[in-house]
Amino acid sequence: MDSKLPPTKTYFLRDEVVIHNNETSAWVIIHGVVIDITPLFTAGRKKATLKKTLQWLLAFAGQDLSLFFHNNELTPIERTNRNGERVPVFVPCLERNPATQCCWYRDPALVIGRITFHPCPVKIINTLTFHETEMIVCYEDTIGDVREKYLRYNDNAKQYEWRKDLSEGSEVGMLRMDKTLTENGYQVNLRSSVPVIWIFYILPPDTTNEADSLSGKYNPANGRSSSESEALRLTTLQ
């Protein structure tokens, strides 16, 4: 792989790249490197239509272009044209990033991450609502990254304690948010069971009992789904 490209700590699933397949958001993959080629279509646009080579490149947005490049390199495969000149098999490789004038496939400014080494299924169980959510995350994702992705299912995800076990409040079993699944002790491979993360809702400091809720000091319905609010009401009554 080209050593000129900067290292990255951002990883993507292939499914996350596929959806970036239009002129306003176009990504491609080359030997595991994720490249955002959107600037080629949006920078300094004055014409109503793209030129042919850019139209060709746009048709491949969201896809893996590795077959047009030498193994494990960001060097395009070439052929000899009728004039005896060496040209890329994939003609859009002739295009450059307007902002840097670098070939788009070698431009560090366009590299946004890498494809994950291994997609990992994970199950998150909300002990407040008893709702289970199954997700696919990147092998390299930290628990903090997983929590960020879980926000699409629960916008209060940061108000929970994330644990490997059911020992609520104990330091043992509490997940390190800056560590990955494997670094937190989970087995992540094809033979292992799906990792389970238990999350416990943390009451705000000024919420001690049902009387506080009823007196208006705290409204459990604020920012929560109806199932979370009802579960919290039952919890505080105990």
From TrEMBL:
<keyword id="KW-0408">Iron</keyword>
<comment type="similarity">
    <text>Belongs to the cytochrome b5 family.</text>
</comment>
<feature type="compositionally biased region" description="Polar residues">
    <location>
        <begin position="222"/>
        <end position="238"/>
    </location>
</feature>
<comment type="function">
    <text>Radial spoke stalk protein that binds heme under oxidizing conditions. Required for the coordinated beating of multiple cilia maybe by functioning in a redox signaling pathway.</text>
</comment>
<dbReference type="GO" id="GO:0046872">
    <property type="term" value="F:metal ion binding"/>
</dbReference>
<dbReference type="InterPro" id="IPR052320">
    <property type="entry name" value="Cytochrome_b5_domain"/>
</dbReference>
<dbReference type="GO" id="GO:0005930">
    <property type="term" value="C:axoneme"/>
</dbReference>
<dbReference type="InterPro" id="IPR036400">
    <property type="entry name" value="Cyt_B5-like_heme/steroid_sf"/>
</dbReference>
<protein>
    <recommendedName>
        <fullName>Cytochrome b5 domain-containing protein 1</fullName>
    </recommendedName>
</protein>
<keyword id="KW-0966">Cell projection</keyword>
<keyword id="KW-0349">Heme</keyword>
<feature type="domain" description="Cytochrome b5 heme-binding">
    <location>
        <begin position="12"/>
        <end position="87"/>
    </location>
</feature>
<feature type="region of interest" description="Disordered">
    <location>
        <begin position="213"/>
        <end position="238"/>
    </location>
</feature>
<keyword id="KW-0963">Cytoplasm</keyword>
<keyword id="KW-0479">Metal-binding</keyword>
<dbReference type="InterPro" id="IPR001199">
    <property type="entry name" value="Cyt_B5-like_heme/steroid-bd"/>
</dbReference>
<keyword id="KW-0206">Cytoskeleton</keyword>
